[in-house]
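Recall the central idea of this unit: under ordinary conditions, the amino acid sequence of a chain determines the structure it adopts. In this exercise we apply that idea directly, starting from the sequence alone.
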Amino acid sequence: MKFSGKIIKCGDNINTDLIIPGKYLTLTDLQEMAKHAMEGIDPSFTRRGKDSIIVAGDNFGCGSSREQAPLALKYAGVKCVIAKSFARIFYRNAINIGLPVVECETIYDKVEEGDKIEVDLVSGSITVLDKNIDVKAQPLPKFMLDILREGGLLNLLKKQTGK
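Accordingly, the structure predicted from this sequence is:
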């Protein structure tokens, strides 16, 4: 499973309220919710977010355990999120809804906004194409790759149970 796109760079401690402000949690249309992704820190995000890869610092997704945060990013067109570290509940919510997330401590300081990047979830390799930089992240375990391949945990369970 490989993804490529332009980097949108974020700092440390990007919490779920910054990812999707609380006033939009009543929205049930995921496309409508996606229009407000990252609105609090970057009003241009939804225009630039399609086919992007977020590269963030420490503790991405901290705060409340709202599942809407990774959903907003996914439906805004984010292909993958790479961070030095994630809040655990955000990490699992992202995998469960089919948004690839990768922990990598070394990439953040080597990239800039707009760099083109390629991520291989199976091998854990991350390549910054503009700068010919290769780094290794921890590859995702098979069960997480299976969830992502099916577009989320519910899709995988439906496939496995035939329901």
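The chain has seven helices and seven strands.
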